[in-house]
Amino acid sequence: AQRVTQPEKLLSVFKGAPVELKCNYSYSGSPELFWYVQYSRQRLQLLLRHISRESIKGFTADLNKGETSFHLKKPFAQEEDSAMYYCALSGRGSSNTGKLIFGQGTTLQVKP
Amino acid sequence: KAGVTQTPRYLIKTRGQQVTLSCSPISGHRSVSWYQQTPGQGLQFLFEYFSETQRNKGNFPGRFSGRQFSNSRSEMNVSTLELGDSALYLCASSTIGTVVKTEAFFGQGTRLTVV
């Protein structure tokens, strides 16, 4: 079964503290993994994808195929990071690339 | 360039009615996907259209249907509305490569309330 699990509904940290948003997945095959973010009153938007191996706004995510995880990390949280974060996966190949499977989302709250 | 546009932004319908939602993708994007977002189920994939053809379909009843026009604009239709269809419906467009997924850009959604 194809599934994305984000075990935490809410993660609350203080400004300057490290952040780790957890994501585990189940997929038969080789998926592409993404993190999407939704700031208050804004559209859902792509934060980063594993295939790019990039760091966006200080966030990084490493794909661990052995543990089937794609946790999102940031060493020092900022108040502007407060948002809803969704982990998502997509299959490879032209027939699968249009479908995203989302986790339930984690609300990150960064306190001053 | 203009983003993904969904109309209308809000809708209130009565049980048993049908509804049509519209999505205009970013210019040049040929893939349009639809998602249903609810507090209980989160974001669930409805279907994807590419070059006027449905390429992927999620696990929703046949009351949910869609189509795509030659200009890539897409509509989704829900017939015989039920209270449980109340949700935020999101549309996303992308260029879609053959192997690597390109970024999906989301619209602001249509909030459907069924009473």
Describe this structure in words.
The complex is a heterodimer of chains A (112) and B (115). Chain A has no helices and 11 strands. Chain A is mostly beta strands and 112 residues long. In chain A, the strands form 3 sheets. In chain A, strands 2, 5, 6, 9, 10 and 11 form a 6-stranded mixed sheet that branches. A 3-stranded antiparallel sheet of chain A has the order 3-8-7, with no helix packed on it. Chain A is globular and about 45 Å long. Chain A starts with a strand and ends with a strand. Chain B is mainly β. Chain B is 0% helix and 52% strand. The model of chain B has no long low-confidence stretch (mean pLDDT 92). Chain B is globular. Chain B contains no helices and 11 strands. Chain B has strands at 5-7, 10-13, 19-24, 31-38, 42-50, 53-57, 64-68, 74-78, 87-94, 105-106, 110-114. In chain B, the strands form 2 sheets. In chain B, strands 2, 4, 5, 6, 9, 10 and 11 form a 7-stranded mixed sheet that branches. In chain B, strands 1-3-8-7 form a 4-stranded antiparallel sheet, with no helix packed on it. Chains A and B meet through β6 and β10 of A and β4, β5, β9 and β10 of B.
Largest sheet of chain B, in brief, is: 7 strands, mixed
Helix content of chain A: under 10%
Count of individual helical segments of chain B: 0
Helix-strand pattern of chain B: EEEEEEEEEEE
Strand percent estimate of chain A = over 45%
Radius of gyration of chain A from the CA trace? 14 Å
Multimer state: heterodimer
Low-confidence stretches of chain B: none
Major sheet size, sense and barrel closure of chain A:
6 strands, mixed
General form of chain A: globular
Average pLDDT of chain B works out at 92
* Span of the ends, CA to CA of chain A: 40 Å
If you compute it from the alpha carbons, what radius of gyration of chain B comes out, rounded to the nearest whole angstrom?
Answer: 14 Å
The number of helical segments of chain A is 0
Unreliable stretches of chain A, pLDDT < 50, 5 or more residues? none
Strand content of chain B: over 45%
- Secondary structure category of chain A: mainly beta
